[in-house]
From TrEMBL, chain A:
Name of this protein: Putative ABC transport system permease protein
ABC3 transporter permease C-terminal domain sequence ranges: 62-179
GO biological process: transmembrane transport
Pfam families assigned: FtsX
Family: Belongs to the ABC-4 integral membrane protein family.
Keywords noted in UniProt: Cell membrane, Membrane, Transmembrane, Transmembrane helix, Transport
Record PANTHER family: ABC TRANSPORTER PERMEASE (PTHR46795:SF3), ABC TRANSPORTER PERMEASE-RELATED-RELATED (PTHR46795)
Automatic annotation (TrEMBL), chain B:
Keywords: ATP-binding, Nucleotide-binding, Transport
Family statement: Belongs to the ABC transporter superfamily.
Superkingdom field: Bacteria
Record GO cellular component, one term: membrane protein complex
Organism, as annotated: Lentibacillus halodurans
A GO term for molecular function: ATP binding
Protein name: Putative ABC transport system ATP-binding protein
This protein's record includes keyword ATP-binding: yes
Matching InterPro entries: AAA+_ATPase, ABC_transporter-like_ATP-bd, MacB-like_ATP-bd, P-loop_NTPase
Every ABC transporter domain range: 6-246
Pfam families according to UniProt: ABC_tran (PF00005)
Length: 613, 255
């Protein structure tokens, strides 16, 4: 009988439960998505540039797990607040306490299992959809990635069943401990604001120390390696939560303490709301900040890797391409590019060797890059200034700069000419060589990645030419384009993972905050109607809502952003310039976040603002 | 004395749409309240007391008739203007206190002033003055959750008074209080009325609270049924009220 009653009332409160179900479902889906990558060891190992990638994912699982535990415990306690009044009613009508306790247990567990089933389905769908979208975008085959991955499914199920079991016990226990009257009047109870100065101070200091240690570990990731990652994970997560639990309430209290600010218009109400909210929200805000940090971090890392491909490709070459004996097809390709520099160098090829005309080289000395092995910096291109006084040089006799120019920039090496020797000779000697004259073009363009298709054509033609000289199937022609293709192949897996996870985490973040704000909105309704009664204009109420929610959105975003900015240091040993294109993921994030803020305000307004005739 | 603060003329309020089941909550009610008067409104449950208070307090619009408060016709004002009007001219005391529990007592009392843009340095003396009048100076920094019902209602009264409104509208202010707190609250209101010439309109069904008024309007079934004036002592007036109540046609609705 009781079961029937509770089922029918659950149906009645379907709307409230929908918010809860949505929140749980997203959490489960994201967890599953993460695990499809984390547990697919073969895939991540073969597709990553980071050797310890499996370990990175272990740490990631730990962090996500910790966040999820926080979130699920919070979300299921929401069931309790929804149901306790009715449970109290059953008890006044004569239901036994252990019956009601049982009921609470089963309800919580039931909702958990339902959301687990929906969540897994959604997770598989999302994993497939997002994976296909980005694989297509990145031109990445993603072999070995499976959207429906049984081991991850099992992990997710075990993790959540245990979690739901625990939270069900907690909920049942809470019901068991409360008296009938407490249950009946639960809604009228208010939380008491208590900010103890000393405790807060210790909390803030501890949070700062923890986060400081974590930042130190991230900045020095190169030296600390695995330990650094572990250290960062176990310090930053609790540090962030502590920050929100201790510092923020104190901060709002300080704001409120400023009389002239507090007593202006509705400010006292806005801040009062904020202060009361903050107490319930600290953990959620901490969770959101962590999710922002992880999501934005993963996305930033992914995009940086993408950007890094071109940087790495250009690390060794000052010129974008060298074209030996350009064909008509090459000329067409050239015509379609925005060329910033183009030099022609003549040479002759006979059976013994390849002879470059010295005067050509000296007239337009080529740019080269000299890599300094001790530095992470990309070398700047420099123009050769050394002279070549002798009449004839063998390749080995050339000054360093010139041999670099010939072998690297012009690709005058065995990969083009096979076993032939390379010479640089003056006009007189050049004339005496009986062979057809030909030339090589060195060019630089304004935007390398904009002309990839042309470079591909050029590279293919060069490869044919090389096969002519060498009489065998040559491997990829060295040069900037060759490097680019090579680097892209090995990093696109990492890029894919970064973006995939970034999107997943940001989605979870959105659902967490929205769920929290909207689930508490109904209790705020009477405050707004009271304000209306004492004569507050609607526009003022709206302004207050915007301000309050804005601040609530602002804090976790700030903390998350700082985490990401510092966290990118982690990659400085593998990515050349981790910060160059950081505005891109940040603006993507800001747009999503802003949009999401706007939706929350709209929905919140609809719930709390009194309807006026 | 002598100026009319509230002028209610032939006010009608019909709930429900046309062609549907209509309910006539107010049926042509007219009365005046002079400045500095303490008027009670009584009547059995469902007589239209709360509806009357709602239309006078601009929270609800009458379907017919006219209401003037402090010389302003409020029946044709827009929502925004009404909100401003409420915040400037009216003070509210509700049965369930309606204090904002996320603000301290001080902040609750200060709110109407902040809303009118009174500078912070002028707010403090006003709040303290009104708190002293109501004897709640020592609880100003507390939150509503930590004080007693009587204290809450005094705080609510202080909030209603602080911006010196044209009239205070009180809806069953003693309804949720024990008899001792109720008595002291009523005495505080009489004190305000006597010494500070505050005009008060009190809606109640408690004869004891009503006996503090100068004049009582009885409402039944949406119409003004009787009007009695206080002559002599409060105890005598209490008896007069009880007698008047017993005259009602449906005595079982009267406690």
């Amino acid at each position: 009988m009781l079961l029937k009653l509770s089922l029918s009332s659950m149906r009645k409160m379907f709307k409230d439960y929908l918010v809860l179900l949505f929140g749980l479902t997203i959490s489960i889906a994201i967890f599953y998505m993460f695990e499809t990558l984390a547990q697919n060891q073969a895939f991540i190992e073969s597709n990553s540039m980071i050797s310890a990638i499996v370990f990175v994912f272990h740490v990631g699982t730990f962090i996500l797990g910790a966040i999820t535990v926080f979130y699920i415990f919070y979300a299921t306690s929401f069931i309790l607040t929804l149901r306790q009044k009715e449970m109290g009613m059953y008890m006044t009508l004569g239901a036994k306490k252990h019956k009601v306790t049982q009921l609470m247990f089963f309800e919580t567990f039931f909702i958990g299992i339902v959301s687990l089933m929906i969540g897994l389905t959604v997770g598989v769908g999302l994993a497939k959809g997002i994976a296909e979208l980005f694989m297509w975008q990145l031109d990445f085959s993603g072999e070995g990635f499976e959207a429906l991955y049984p081991p991850s499914m099992i992990t997710t199920i075990i993790f959540y069943v245990v979690l739901f079991f625990l939270t069900s016990i907690v909920n049942a226990g809470k019901i068991a401990r409360k008296s009938v009257l407490n249950l009946l009047h639960a809604e009228q109870k208010q939380d008491h604001v208590k900010v103890k100065g000393k405790k807060t101070f210790i909390g803030v200091v501890l949070a700062v120390i923890l986060i400081g240690v974590g930042y130190y570990a991230m900045i020095n990731m190169g030296q600390l390696e695995h330990y650094g990652l572990i250290l960062a994970a176990i310090t930053i997560v609790p540090g962030t939560y502590l920050m929100f639990i201790s510092f923020l309430p104190w901060f709002v209290k300080k704001l409120k303490g400023n009389r002239s600010l507090n007593e202006k218009g509705l400010n006292s109400f806005t801040l009062g709301q904020l202060r009361f909210r903050m107490l319930n929200l600290t953990k959620v805000l901490g969770t959101v900040a962590m999710l922002i940090a992880m999501g934005l971090g993963a996305m930033t890392a992914g995009i940086s890797f993408y950007h890094n491909v071109e940087l790495q490709a250009s690390a060794f070459y000052a010129n974008d391409a060298a074209i030996h004996q350009p064909t008509e097809e090459d000329e067409t390709a050239l015509a379609n590019m925005n060329i910033t520099e183009q030099n022609t160098y003549h040479y002759k090829v006979n059976d013994q060797g390849v002879y470059f005309l010295k005067e050509d080289l000296l007239e337009n000395p080529p740019m080269i890059k000299q890599v300094d092995p001790t530095s992470m910096e990309i070398p700047e291109g420099t123009r050769i200034s050394e002279s070549l006084p002798e009449a004839k040089y063998k390749f080995e006799e050339l000054p360093d700069a010139w041999s670099t120019a010939l072998s690297m920039e012009m690709n005058a090496s065995s990969s083009m000419f096979g076993g032939k020797s390379i010479y640089v000779v003056d006009k007189g000697n050049y004339h005496d060589i009986s062979a057809d004259e030909t030339s090589v073009e060195l060019l630089q363009v304004d935007n390398f990645t904009a002309h990839l298709s042309q470079f591909e054509t050029i590279s293919e033609n060069q490869q044919e030419l090389a096969e002519n000289y060498r009489g065998e199937g040559a491997e990829t022609i060295p040069g900037k384009y060759g490097n680019y293709v090579g680097f892209k192949a090995i990093s696109s897996g990492t890029i894919f993972m970064g973006i995939f996870l970034g999107v997943a985490f940001l989605m979870m973040m959105a659902s967490v905050l929205m769920f929290k704000l909207l689930s508490t909105a109904t209790t705020d309704t009477h405050r707004y109607s009271m304000l209306r009664k004492i004569g507050v204009r609607k526009s003022l109420l709206v302004k207050s809502i915007y301000r309050e929610l804005f601040l609530l959105f602002l804090f976790p975003a700030l903390v998350g952003l700082v985490h990401v900015l510092i966290g990118m240091q982690m990659f400085s040993f593998i990515i050349i310039e981790p910060y160059t294109k950081i505005w891109m993921p940040i603006s993507i994030f800001l747009v999503i976040y802003g949009l999401y803020f706007w939706i929350t305000v709209k929905m919140y307004k609809r719930i709390v603002l009194p309807k006026e005739a | 004395m002598g100026t009319t603060v509230v002028n209610v003329k032939d006010v009608q309020k019909v709930f429900g749409k046309r062609n549907e089941n209509q309910y006539r909550a107010l049926n042509g009610v007219s009365f005046n309240i002079q400045e500095g008067e303490f008027v009670g409104v009584m009547g059995p449950s469902g007589a239209g007391k709360t509806t009357l208070l709602n239309v006078v307090s601009t929270l609800d619009k009458p379907t017919g008739g006219a209401i003037q408060i402090a010389g302003t016709d409020i029946t044709h004002m827009k929502q925004g203007q009404l909100a401003d009007f409420r915040s400037e001219q009216l003070g509210f005391i509700f049965q369930d206190f309606n204090l904002l529990e996320n603000l301290t007592v001080y902040e609750n009392i200060a709110l109407p002033l902040s809303l009118q843009g009174v500078p912070s340095r002028k707010i403090k003396p006003s709040v303290q003055e009104v708190a002293a009048k109501l004897g709640i100076t020592n609880i100003l920094e507390k939150y509503p959750a930590t004080i007693s019902g009587g204290q809450k209602q005094r705080a609510a009264a202080a909030r209603a008074l602080v911006h010196e409104p044209a009239i205070i509208l009180a809806d069953e202010p003693t309804g949720a209080l024990d008899s001792k707190s109720a008595k002291s609250l009523m005495e505080a209101m009489v004190h305000l009325h006597k010494n500070h010439h505050v005009s008060i309109m009190l809606v109640t069904h408690d004869p004891l609270s009503a006996s503090y008024c100068d004049r009582i309007l009885f409402i039944q079934d949406g119409e003004l049924y009787k009007e009695i004036f206080r002559k002599g002592s409060r105890n005598e007036f209490h008896q007069t009220i009880l007698d008047a109540l017993s005259e009602f046609t449906s005595p079982d609705e009267v406690e």
